[in-house]
Amino acid sequence: MGLVREPAPAVQATPPSRTSTPPSTTRPPSTHPASRPALPAAVTYVPPTDPVGCPTAGAVAAAQNLADLQRATEGCLACPLGPGRLKFVFGEGNPQARLMFVGEGPGRDEDQVGRPFVGKAGELLDKMIAALGMQRDQTYIANVVKCRPPDNRTPTAEEAQACLGYLHRQIELIQPAVIVTLGATPLRELVGVSEGITRVRGQWKRVKVGDREIPVMPTFHPAYVLRQYTQEVRRAVWEDLKAAKDWIDRPGPED
Ligand code: URA
Hints:
- The chain has a single domain (57-249), classed as Uracil-DNA Glycosylase, subunit E (3-Layer(aba) Sandwich).
- The chain is α/β, with parallel strands linked by helices.
- It has helices at residues 57-62, 66-73, 108-113, 120-131, 157-174, 184-191, 197-200, 222-227, 231-249; strands at 92-93, 99-103, 140-143, 178-182, 205-209, 212-219.
- 34% of the residues lie in helices and 11% in strands.
- It is globular, with a radius of gyration of 17 Å.
- Bound molecules: uracil.
- Uracil binds next to loops.
């Protein structure tokens, strides 16, 4: 398998000096040695008020399960990506997953089969999950945008924001204990952190979804790992994933 397994440092505690946002005052860090690290504050997503060609925010909010949400959203034409897709890639996995991965958007393989992370990057993601002692179907995997951007370009901010309400509702329904963002795009669009991924990976963030705040562990996108297949990059991803796994394995007051 491709990851460099090393005794990961106990969870990467996030001292205030390493974060761009101040630590929340709503959840004081515990002093228990095996406790979870403190998280910085979350930003709030405001859905677009003039959606065109897509379900209303009310219809999205009314979906009571993932199948309802998929039915409500899979005909979406809210942004220019809709007309170009072969398949709407809603996301897949355990509807009660404690660990959720969020990538950028479908590539060519995903567009053809309608499932997230099924190409080369997906193979590596599967290996990463297996390295954690988990199976893919114990997790949930989704993307910021559900339709393939042409030539696999990064989705624009408008495309991402048009789609983000769907991801938020997905997260509300799943209620994961931790989200791992893969690459810069989900970190920027979902969590509101625009710093370079190389700088912020491994540092706990949080996202507010509905009335919950969810810890976020940013790491590299598997496609980047495949391009930069160095020991340093693989070790970094392993440490980030271990931190996320440690979080879900430790009981906490948020659960
Ligand atoms: N890259 C992503 O960000 N998402 C996918 O589903 C596949 C590749």
